[in-house]
Amino acid sequence: MAKLLECALNFSEGRREEVINAVVAAAQGVRVLDVASDKDHNRTVRTFVGSPEAAAEAAFRVSAKAVERIDMNGHRGAHPRMGAVDVIPFVPLGQATMAEAIAMARQVGQRLGAELGIPVYLYEEAATRPERRNLADVRQGEYEGLPQKLAEPQWKPDFGPDHPHPTAGATAVGARIYLVAYNVNLGTPDVEIAKAIARTVRAKTGGLQNVKALGVMLRERKLAQVTMNVVDPLCTPLYRVLELVRLEAARYGVAVVGSEIVGLVPLAVILETARYYLQLEGFRDDQVLETRLWGETP
Amino acid sequence: MAKLLECALNFSEGRREEVINAVVAAAQGVRVLDVASDKDHNRTVRTFVGSPEAAAEAAFRVSAKAVERIDMNGHRGAHPRMGAVDVIPFVPLGQATMAEAIAMARQVGQRLGAELGIPVYLYEEAATRPERRNLADVRQGEYEGLPQKLAEPQWKPDFGPDHPHPTAGATAVGARIYLVAYNVNLGTPDVEIAKAIARTVRAKTGGLQNVKALGVMLRERKLAQVTMNVVDPLCTPLYRVLELVRLEAARYGVAVVGSEIVGLVPLAVILETARYYLQLEGFRDDQVLETRLWGETP
């Protein structure tokens, strides 16, 4: 299979359709796999895949349009954010290596800093120091806390100026292995319950390996949600995550009312779900009919 | 997705390898998914998929070779059979419709009759009268009973002559919807329990629509099994079947210890499983990454 990078560029507009469309349309030369907008989060994820060079170019062009169209002053949304372009992760697929993904992350970071005047932090596998690996730490303080953060010596950005962009904030650019964005909706409007459950399932605070979790409020639906990233979902499968959330929610007499996979997910992740719940014995990936029809390398 | 027909052509040779190979090799232009021969049945099933036109052409060529190489006079085998080419079912996949599958069944039937001199009965969705829908009824009397059957007015064939082919008998050609072969293994060696559970889940005897079920013994593993065909598994999904078996087994204090999907299953069937157990909201088939990478029609 070819060298491919997948890029799941997150930008801070999830409500105004014309802005979302303008930003999303800003790049060609890559295959757009998904565009997922969330009004409560006020955020959109545009997922695309292409050769390393094409993916980097597309990421830059989409970022430039987002910086042009989105003013972070007055931005409100349920999801943590520090910039008009909030985070740009590159994921190696096919024959691409992590080193190649890191190289492209650096390249895009350098251009955002030099050409758009955006302070950039490299994170995850691209991080220049251990304390910058974790996106949550990089984003700590969010947009509003940037003036103070950027003034501190240990938070000098990897590229770009030592002060926030006047309207676009700062951006994190990185490389990481595949993750699934997975949200679980609870039968309660109490966001404190979602936050408590997030604490129990998050790896860092005593939960499942590979899980990052936050409790957020879905204002439109009046439901609390545990919003998660599951890194390496073949190591920590989604059913295990869901069932732990369900277990922890039961303490409060709260049920799981639904869940959501945001963006794309590899077939193997779905198959693990089926294998667990159906108690399948010996089910091979190639028993899925379409895998016999696809066959040829893209 | 493209218009595809799957064809599981059954011919009456399961022992002589050179005959099997010659028949199986008789057609190109389609993707062969499986070739399964059974010595006891003295029968082979060649499963292939392609565009409707390619599938119909391949079915005709394979049939022509089987008619050339197989002499039904003296044929012995454990499976009911009436012809060198015994049955040709077409199953619509992807964007193909049942009407298209029926049209191809008719086309192949007409050619078998006109070009090979084979009497042909259209069955299942392609049947020209209600009493010909069921394959077992069409095949009643088998090869040896054909001279009498073909002489009866109500069994005048849909295509071809009113008398059997001298060596190749008759053939049934039809169209049907997808079915999944699904087995559930019970934590008991008591086959009577499996038979009782089969009775409760089988459509005919008060169970789920679209389910045929039998209780059988897995001698090697000393486990009883409910073995099933689930016709139209997007109408009656596998999770519903499993959970009903589980419910009915609980009456006997018996658990489900595993289950098995035999052969190929469409992605959509696996996705329905994930949607139910993960309580997924709004999950689209095209969120599976591979559907985007191998998007081009085969």
Topology diagram in text:
Two copies of one chain form a homodimer.
Chain A: E1 3-11, H1 17-24, E2 31-38, E3 43-50, H2 52-69, E4 85-94, H3 98-116, E5 120-124, H4 135-139, H5 146-151, E6 171-175, E7 179-186, H6 191-201, E8 211-218, E9 223-231, H7 238-250, E10 256-262, H8 267-277, H9 289-294
Parallel strand pairs in A: 4-6, 5-6
Antiparallel strand pairs in A: 1-3, 1-4, 2-3, 7-9, 7-10, 8-9
Helix pairs in contact in A: 1-2, 2-3, 6-7
Record the strand order, biggest sheet of chain A: 2-3-1-4-6-5
- What can be said about the biggest beta sheet of chain A? 6 strands, mixed
Report the strand count of chain A.
Answer: 10
**DSSP strand content of chain A:** 25-35%
Mean of pLDDT of chain A: 94
The ordered H/E elements of chain A are EHEEHEHEHHEEHEEHEHH
Largest interface: A-B, 41 and 42 residues
* Uncertain segments of chain A: none
CA-based gyration radius of chain A: 19 Å
Structural class of chain A: alpha+beta
Assembly type of the shown chains?
Answer: homodimer
How far from one another are the termini of chain A? 7 Å
